Amino acid sequence: MVDDRTHGNIGILKAFARVAIKTVLSWYSFFSMTATRRHQAVHDILTRSTVQIRDPSKALPHHYSPERIELSNRGMPSRGRRILVIGAYGAASYFALVLLVLFVRQFGGLMSTACPQSSAYCSSGDTFLMWVLGLAWIVSIAFFIGLGRRGRLWGARIRA
Q1: pLDDT, tens digit, 9 for 90 and up, residues 71-116
Q2: CA of 56: how far to CAs of 1, 53, 59, 62, 158, in Å?
Q3: Contact 68, 37 (CB under 8 A)
Q4: Residue 132 and residue 96 share a domain
Q5: Pairing of strands 156-157, 152-153
Q6: Same domain, yes or no: 92 and 107
Q7: What domain range is 23 assigned to?
């Protein structure tokens, strides 16, 4: 572990803070590794530390991931714009999910009309359908984050 400010070893307090954050967030902490330039997890970002190889001559290619250079492309939209566009896509997908649930409830006959208001009235089929729709929404959000991070969403594309 290397301190990003001093480029030396991290201190004991920073190491404890890193472990505490990692423990609290569990494996969710690692989602940020797909979105950051240096593949940092949340606990690394918050403690301003980086996992680095001490002796690159001993490391094999599968032991590390190189820094992402596509995120520093001059034609890349600003981080704020990409976040805003990803948020808009997420809100639109949530609105589409709500409309889909209303349509399924009213016209599809796949869900009881009382289920979305109170979970006490949901059958196991209703619960399973809501679970599948929720999972589909989470997958769509991950898809939008992946495309938006690389500047491939309409509204925040890489300029040629």
Answers
A1: 566 778 888 888 899 999 999 999 999 898 888 777 767 777 666 5
A2: 15, 6, 5, 12, 33
A3: yes
A4: yes
A5: antiparallel
A6: yes
A7: 2-68
DSSP code string of 42-94: HHHHHHTEE---S-GGG--GGG--PPPSGGG-TTSPPHHHHHHHHHHHHHHHH
Tokens of 158: 């890489």
| Tokens 């190491």 belong to residue | 15
Number of domains forming the structure of the chain: 2
Residue where the block lists tokens 């809100």: 91
Same domain, 42 and 118: no
| The last residue of a domain, from among 68, 89, 107 | 68
If asked whether residues 58 and 102 sit together in one domain, one would say: no
